[in-house]
Specification:
Elements: H1 22-33, E1 35-42, H2 49-57, H3 70-75, E2 81-89, E3 92-100, H4 115-132, E4 147-152, H5 161-170, E5 176-180, H6 188-204, H7 221-233, E6 236-237, E7 244-247, E8 250-257, E9 260-263, H8 272-281, H9 283-304, H10 325-363
Parallel strand pairs: 1-3, 1-4, 4-5, 5-6
Antiparallel strand pairs: 2-3, 7-8, 8-9
């Protein structure tokens, strides 16, 4: 009996334990906590990255954008620009970070231009690794890059050497989703040809894209059809626009040309809706692949390189977070103490093991045994 005299009522029917409600709990928890998702957009300057991001999330992520001059562009190295918005729709919160990389390919020295991007992806893994082995594991903010839209120039004849080099450099670190930029500049047939060419090159050069998961046999037919269409659409041919135009009395996002309007959200005009559907319906899968494949790769590499695990230096915080230095210092100290303690315990264990081994081999007749430790 509760203190206020009211009895606790079993919410379950008798005869049921109630674990059928577990998925709801998971759902409720993630709704309360909100989703954290980081999308990175990469590609040459002017291919419509920022425009597409604004079209995708119906927000203006870059209200104060300044367009650099030609001279600035030549001197420009890749700048990483992370902006976070909290979007709420029907009670579900999404903390979305978009990492924009303006200037990619602008600088004359394009060989090194993607290094800072790779560094950014690695830094986020490093930071997660530190946080995960720290004291405050419950409140880790996940800034790892879960998906990277790679923008392909529609005016080329497929992938350029820089595109291939970049994708090969990051495909084991991040989920790449290729998009064909500014698809309104191509005819339907040209889009199909370019898509085919790009996929052929991706195969030829051994580039791993984000693998859209197969649907289970028991899924319903509509869902299977959706999966099939999404897979067939890669690389997604997209059009972006920040302009609302009235077409037949309806307001739509589109681009107006002398011969008509290209509607961003019209599936007959481009794959924008397919790309958005792919992203929204696979958010969790993209996070899982990031955790289970890319992050594990990173951890394995770190272990193999023999670097101390975890690194003691605080990793670089992304541009949008302000950490309190004092707090970081305190945490650092606590971490170091914890590590010392761990090392002491490891030494003790090793000593005990050695003693046991000595006892064992002493009791054996032919004495020597070798061990791979
Ligand atoms: N035809 C066409 N033009 C587009 C499309 N998307 C954007 N644009 C235009 O292309 C220009 C560049 O767009 P941005 O979104 O600023 O390009 P960006 O890739 O972010 O460029 P950087 O920030 O310099 O790397 C703008 O004038 C846009 O209006 C598209 O889908 N089709
Ligand atoms: Mg931009």
């Amino acid at each position: 009996m509760a203190a206020d005299g009211r009895q606790f009522v079993n919410p379950e029917q008798s005869g049921y334990v109630g674990f059928a409600n577990l998925p709801n709990q998971v759902h409720r928890k993630s709704v309360k906590k909100g989703f954290e998702f980081t999308l990175m957009v990469v590609g040459e300057s002017g291919l419509g990255k920022s425009t597409l991001v604004n079209s995708l999330f119906l927000t203006d992520l870059y209200p104060e954008r300044q367009i650099p001059t030609a001279l600035e562009k030549i001197q420009q190295t890749v700048k990483i620009d992370a902006s976070t918005v909290e979007i709420e729709e029907r009670g579900v919160k999404l903390r979305l970070t978009v990492v924009d990389t303006p200037g990619f390919g602008d600088s004359l020295n394009s060989v090194d231009c993607f290094k800072p991007i790779i560094q950014y992806v690695d830094d986020q893994f490093e930071r997660y690794l530190n946080d995960e082995s720290g004291l405050n594991r419950r409140h880790i903010i996940d800034n790892r890059v879960h998906c990277c839209f790679y923008f392909i120039n529609p005016s080329g004849h497929g992938l350029r050497p820089l595109d291939i080099a970049f994708m090969k450099a990051v495909h084991h670190k991040v989920n790449i989703v290729p998009v064909l930029a500014k698809a309104d500049t191509l005819t339907k047939k040209e889009v199909l040809n370019l898509k085919r060419k790009v996929m052929q090159q991706i195969e030829q050069y051994g580039i791993s894209l984000y693998p859209l998961p197969d649907c289970d046999d028991d899924e319903d037919e509509d869902y299977k059809e959706q999966c099939r269409q999404l897979k067939a659409a890669v690389p997604f041919a997209v059009v972006g626009s920040n302009t609302i135009i009235e077409v037949k009395g309806k307001k739509v996002r589109g681009r107006m040309y002398p011969w008509g309007v290209v509607e961003v959200e019209n599936p007959d005009h481009c794959d924008f809706i397919k790309l958005r559907t792919m992203l929204i319906t696979h958010m969790q899968d993209l996070q899982e692949v990031t955790q289970e494949v890319h992050y594990e790769n990173f951890r394995a590499e770190r272990l193999a390189s023999g670097a101390p695990m975890p690194s003691k230096k605080p990793s670089r915080a992304p541009a949008n977070t302000n950490r309190n230095d004092n707090q970081v210092d305190q945490r650092e100290q606590a971490l170091q103490e914890k590590e010392k303690e761990l090392r002491r315990m490891q030494e003790m264990l090793a000593k005990m093991q050695a003693e046991m081994e000595a006892q064992k081999s002493g009791g054996q007749q032919n004495g020597v045994r070798s061990h791979n430790v």
